[in-house]
Amino acid sequence: MKKYDIWISDLSHTAQGITNRTFPLGASFIYSYAKQELSSDFDFKLFKFPRDLSKALDKKIPTILAFSNYIWNFEIAYKFAYLAKLRNPNIITVFGGPNFPTLKEEKFEFLKERPAIDFYIELEGELGFLDLVNKLSENNFHSNFLKENNIKINNTCYIYEDEFISGPIERIKDINIIPSPYLTGAMDYFFDHPLVPLIETTRGCPFTCTFCADGLPEKSKVIRRDFERTKEELVYIAKRVKNNNELMISDLNFGMYKQDLETAKMVADIQKEYNYPSIIDTPAGKNMPERTIQVASTMSGWLMGGSIQSTDPDVLRAVKRSNISLEAYRKLMDFGNKRGRTYSEIILGLPEDTKEKHYESLKFSVDNYVNSVHSHQSMLLPGTEQASSISRKQFGLKTMFRTSPGNVGVYEILGEKYPIAEMEEIVVGSNSLSNKEYLECRLMDLIVKAFYNNSIFDEAYSMVRALKVSPFDCLVYIQKHPELYSKKVEQIFKSYIHETMEDLFETKKNANDFVLSSENINRYINGELGTNELTLHNGLLLNEFDDICEITFKSIEGTLREKGLLTNKIQEYMDDLKKFTLITKSDLFKTDKVKSLKLAYDFDQISKENYSVDPNKISKLSTPLEFIFFHDKDQQKYISNAVKMYSKHSSKGQLFNKSNMKQMYRNFNKSDNTPSIKQNS
To answer: Pick from 212, 110, 219: which is nearest to 157 by CA?
Structure first.
């Protein structure tokens, strides 16, 4: 009996390293559910890497070729679909994923412009894909037979003779009907690659943010997986993971529900038995701070954060979002800081945003002791309310197009090589934000990232706070005083501003014509163009650590001088503190070296006070103390794994961006208590 081949792909670009570094969870759910429900007449394959899919297509063309659609992989997926149809017009191509328009007329235009897509599955894919395959089977896998009869398919739309046909929308009521792609072995291949395991314990989001594809009302109900299955998956992963300390959980509001406490207990048990994961990446719930704290305290390694996006009430109303209260936010940050590190996320360029509002959001995060403030550019993502023509007109959103950083390359498909690039549409202005103000905000975002994030100068800013001054004032001072910059830093800032606007295009066609040309494609692949300029230039600044350290301390002095607070005692303390900062945080990847330094202040005691000291109230030691600075074994392992994970990326910016840098800063002891640590050969 003839076997029908069904290939499902969640592709990642790989020319500059694997840009989407997680296991292909969403596609694997479609794969696992279809394989369970359909008969043995079908052969299934799951792909993530373009090279693997290309090799498979060289040998045969499947009956159905299905792809996930995200902003980081749609163009490469569509190129595969288009070329496969050229080779065999009878192949059935299916796409699904969140980045699909929300308005009917825009859905029609999307499919009309992309004739290589036979069917598009909206929202959850498992039920729609199964219904599609069953109906295709009833029509002997002749898609035109199905289309010409206007057959309605669950969660699926298509075009036939210029008519848009859409089936009923149905959500899965119990996600436990989907087999685990881990426990069935579907994910085993990916453990041999530098990828981060990703699991799902809940699906859905009760919030309605207009900039997010999960803010649609159809996705508002939250459903949960069985605890026992989650536990089995965690054990399965922990036994097989290689050279990786991280676990990602795809839940959109982890810690907000009482059941999350049970999940946290499972994770804690796994950590105790397998020493994995040491880092947990998952978005915290936007409500229920007390419960979130309880969940976080149960397991270790969860980076606590708050995605506030903006603190301005007008902006929040415009995007249909409400933030947690100031008191609740501070509780979360206080708790997270006691455990290690925290972050907040802010979006520049949302409807009603201004320069003043953006700065105030940054200052709010800094003043609430957040370790890292992640600023993002507002993007108009297909599948979100904000990307609709209605929203664009209402707020006067001015947009331009650019390559999605890292998502560009030349790939061999069916014997030929093709340049492919993903494009993003970003907001560069609006009725309330001029382009000049946008650029000023972008520069401040880089200053915050390089001179504040990752607690890079936390010891100095803790002193600033002890003097009742906001560290954000020092960051603004850096922006206003370019005379502080060394030549290298000045060049980096100029390059950043240039690249912020240089790689932008008025239309998507203009972007594609430039990027994909034979003259330019290699410039993008090599990282000369098309990088994430914020991440890249942050890495360049951190590579000049001595210079940015000097600028930071000068900005603190300047800020304190302007406020009439600078004294000789403060200057003397800062001289020693600068030496201390340089030795703990420079040359971080030279983990085999033990360094020593004599200092006039007892930094062992000062560290116990979290460096929150007023230098006017402390005295120098009568005799300087010698301190030893070193990386312990756990740090050496963490740094080694991080370097391996991001060694193929074009700059250390990605390494700095994705790693927990606080785990990279050197420990120290007084010299009479020199640590016994193993030296690398």
So the answer is: 110
Contact 607, 625 (CB under 8 A): no
Asked, for residue 681, whether it belongs to a domain, the answer is no
pLDDT for position 653: 67
* Number of domains the chain contains: 2
Of 138, 166, 194, which marks where a domain is finished?
A: 166
Question: pTM of the prediction?
Answer: 0.85
Q: Residue 467's pLDDT is what?
A: 98
Residue that the structure tokens 């292909």 belong to: 24
User: Which residues of the chain are under the pLDDT cut of 50?
Assistant: 650, 674-681
CA distances from 119 to 39, 140, 188, 449, 612 (A): 22, 16, 29, 42, 60
Sequence-distant (≥ 6) Cβ neighbours of residue 138 within 8 angstroms: none
Residue where a domain terminates, one of 148, 166, 184:
166
E strand or H helix at 463: helix 458-466
pLDDT at site 647: 59
CATH of the domain at 160: 3.40.50.2300
Token pair listed for 141: 């896998």
Q: For position 288, what pLDDT does the model report? A: 76
Residue 424 located in a structural domain: no
3-state SS of 60-113?
CCCCEEEEECCCCCHHHHHHHHHHHHHHCCCCEEEEECCCCCCCHHHHHHHHHC
Query: How many residues does this entry show for the chain?
Result: 681
Q: Is the peptide bond before 89 cis (omega within 30 degrees of 0)?
A: no
The reply to whether 592 falls in a domain is yes
CA distance 200 to 230: 8
Q: Which two tokens stand for residue 472?
A: 């954000």
Q: Specify if 639 maps to a domain.
A: yes
DSSP string, 517-579: STTTHHHHHTTSSS--HHHHHHHHHHHTHHHHHHHHHHHHHHHHHHTT---HHHHHHHHHHHH
Host domain of residue 59: 4-166
**Is the dihedral angle over the CA atoms 514, 516, 521, 524 positive or is it negative?**
positive
- HSE value, Cβ hemisphere, 13 Å, CA-based, for 124: 23
CA distance 188 to 411: 25
The residue with tokens 């994705």 is: 658
